[in-house]
Amino acid sequence: MSNPFSGRAGGVIRTLALLLSICALAGCKEAVYSQLTESEANDVLVTLLRGGVEAEKRPTDDKQFSVYVREADVATAIELLRADALPAQRYSSLGEVFERNGLISSPTEERMRYIHGLQQELSHTLSEIDGVVVARVHIVVPARDALDTTVKPSSASVFVKHRPDLNMQLFVPAVKDLVVRSIEGLGPDNVSVSLFPARGAATAGTQIPLTKFFGATVASSSTTALWILLAVPWLLVAATLVMLLHASAVGSGFARLLGARKIRASRDEAPAGREDRRAA
């Protein structure tokens, strides 16, 4: 007896497997950022998940991390990270700026390196304030001439990009005080602070509730749809198998009915043959 699953059922199962493979390929993920420290990767991951983008962190061979999202979400992920200025800029410390390299530096070079180190340190400090997205400090320290007795004051310009829900004006006096006390010969009147609210930054009111679904972090509102998507292929397979079993049972019953009719017909023909032989 032939196997009822070798023909039509095998074709249906192969088709379903192909469809599932296509769905899996459609969910392929792409790295939005690589070569991140674990802290930077965590910040990127939190921002994407709060923005409703499914993301995951993966370690690399060089002890760095990469953050992956679905190919369809790459543009949204980049926009979210750009709004929050992530990954955060890496600043140079004074120790790194004046790291010994075996070469003798000129006084002008030493002065420029010192100013650059101060700018990096102050920018890093200001960026640590809650709600600050990006901070830049530009310092002007006039060169001193031994023959010129005129005192030229230093000046500084501070750029701060902050979250739109934060009233940064309240922090301007503290920012000025921090910069003034960090630069020699700088007065409060020579420090300018420019504030700019970030566009499209995520706020607490727009955060999406998250939950775990088979180990993946997803929006809580999408779990029902995910369960349906997960169940539909298996329901189709089950329905197909039930239909094939039913068709096989019907076919077997029909074959038995035909066999019973043939047996009955042969039995009816046997007495008629014997009567004909007796009459002869």
**CATH top-level class of the largest domain:** Alpha Beta
Give average pLDDT, whole number. Answer: 76
Alpha carbon gyration radius: 38 Å
Q: Write the CATH architecture name of the largest domain.
A: 2-Layer Sandwich
- The main sheet orders its strands as 1-3-2
Largest sheet: 3 strands, antiparallel
Give the overall silhouette: rod-shaped
| Residue runs with pLDDT of under 50 for 5 or more positions | 22-26, 201-205
Kindly list the characteristics that best describe this protein.
280 residues, alpha+beta, Alpha-Beta Plaits, GMP Synthetase, Chain A, domain 3, 3-stranded antiparallel beta sheet, 3-stranded mixed beta sheet, 8 strands, 49% helix
Please tell me about this protein's structure.
The protein is α+β, with helices and mostly antiparallel strands and 280 residues long. The chain folds into three domains: 19-89, 2-Layer Sandwich (Alpha-Beta Plaits); 105-197, ANL, C-terminal domain (GMP Synthetase, Chain A, domain 3, 2-Layer Sandwich); 216-262. It has seven helices and eight strands; from the N terminus they run αβαββαααββαβββα. It has helices at residues 5-26, 38-50, 74-83, 94-97, 107-127, 172-180, 223-279; strands at 29-36, 55-59, 65-70, 132-140, 155-162, 191-197, 210-213, 216-219. A three-stranded antiparallel β-sheet has the order 1-3-2, covered by helices on one side. A three-stranded mixed β-sheet has the order 4-5-6. Helix 6 (172-180) links the parallel strand 5 and strand 6 (191-197). Helix 1 (5-26) runs antiparallel to helix 7. The longest helix is centred in the last third of the chain and has 57 residues, at 223-279. The radius of gyration is 38 Å and the shape is rod-shaped. Mean pLDDT is 76; it is low at 22-26 and 201-205.
